[in-house]
Amino acid sequence: ISGLFGLLFVSLMRMGSSRGSGEVIRGMGIMMLTGFWFSDVSNASHVGGFLFGMLNGIICGPRYVKDYSLRRKNSVEFDPAPRDFRLAMGFGIMPTRRGLVPLELVWLVLLIL
Predict the structure, then answer these.
(1) What's the sign of the alpha-carbon dihedral 90, 93, 97, 102?
(2) Theoretical Cys-Cys bridge with 57: which of 10, 25, 39, 48, CB 3.0 to 4.6 Å?
(3) Burial 74-99 (b: 16+ CB within 10 A, else e)
(4) Does residue 34 contact residue 41 with C-beta atoms inside 8 Å?
(5) CB-count exposure of residue 64 (10 Å: 0-12, 13-18, 19+)
(6) What pLDDT digit, counting tens, does each position of 34-64 carry?
(7) Residue 111, class by beta-carbon neighbours within 10 Å (0-12 exposed, 13-18 middle, 19+ buried)?
(8) Are 87 and 38 in contact (CB under 8 A)?
């Protein structure tokens, strides 16, 4: 779960959502507090999962670009994204096709190993 938090944090930072990334940090703080309260929960695994999730998001996650024409109020440009996508992402933010390293290449390397 901490790895997914790290991946979500990187994605929200790339989209420019400082409020959403703050919520992720708050959730990680709650997880860290549970590690202090319960002796069976390891804080090192929470931090390690978060860092490797961030690394995975940096290497394989998509980039986001802002399209000015979709951000205008009376734009005539067609928005290919569905309504639910727009509600979550905001207007004018579109993901690119690939990240720094294509995810297919990562799966191929893992398959060979």
Answers:
(1) negative
(2) 10
(3) eeeeeeeeeeeeeeebeebbbbeeeb
(4) yes
(5) middle
(6) 888 888 888 899 999 999 999 998 888 877 7
(7) exposed
(8) no
3-state secondary structure of 94: strand
Cα 109 from chain centroid? 23
Question: Do 65 and 96 touch, CB atoms closer than 8 A?
Answer: yes
Name the stretches of the chain with pLDDT < 50. Answer: none
Contact 9, 24 (CB under 8 A): yes
Three-state DSSP at 65 gives strand
Alpha helices in the chain (DSSP H): 2-15, 18-37, 43-60, 68-71, 83-89, 103-112
CA distance 10 to 13: 5
